[in-house]
Amino acid sequence: MDEWRTQQILLETETRDRNEWIEQANDDFETLGDYEFLCECSDQRCTSTVSLDRYEYEAIRAFPTRFLIAPNHENPEIDEPVFERAGFAVIQKLPGEPARLARKSDPRA
Fold first, then answer.
1. Structurally, how many domains does the chain consist of?
2. What is the pTM assigned to this prediction?
3. What is residue 93's predicted lDDT score, i.e. its pLDDT?
4. 109 in a domain, yes or no?
5. Which residues form the domain of 13?
6. Residues in the chain with pLDDT < 50?
7. Long-range CB pairs of 41-48, under 8 A, 24+ apart, other chains included
8. In a domain, 20, yes or no
9. Are 21 and 107 in contact (CB under 8 A)?
10. Which of 45, 64, 67, 74 has the fewest C-beta atoms under 10 angstroms from its C-beta?
11. For 74-103, how does the pLDDT look when each residue is reduced to its tens digit (9 = 90+)?
């Protein structure tokens, strides 16, 4: 796999780590309603956020190869769309190196 694709996946995993912190902070402060999360796409310039509730977020995090993104932010070279809802989408890393890197860096492993 090309080095730049590896870097894109690592960028996504770093954003996933930040979202884990966001979720924990919201839980600690007993925030009600939807949480605002960062888009976990591979575009380092992306500043999009997405809103979803804790249960939706937990359902995504149950799979170490799935990432939360703004609609239409997937990268077809490393991502496969899973589903889309109002305001956010979920992608899964393609089999092989992309999925391996996602699993290896899973903060919940």
1. 1
2. 0.93
3. 97
4. no
5. 3-104
6. none
7. 41/12, 41/67, 41/69, 41/70, 41/73, 41/74, 41/75, 42/8, 42/9, 42/11, 42/12, 42/75, 42/78, 42/79, 43/73, 44/11, 46/70, 46/73, 48/73
8. yes
9. no
10. 45
11. 999 999 999 999 999 999 999 999 999 999
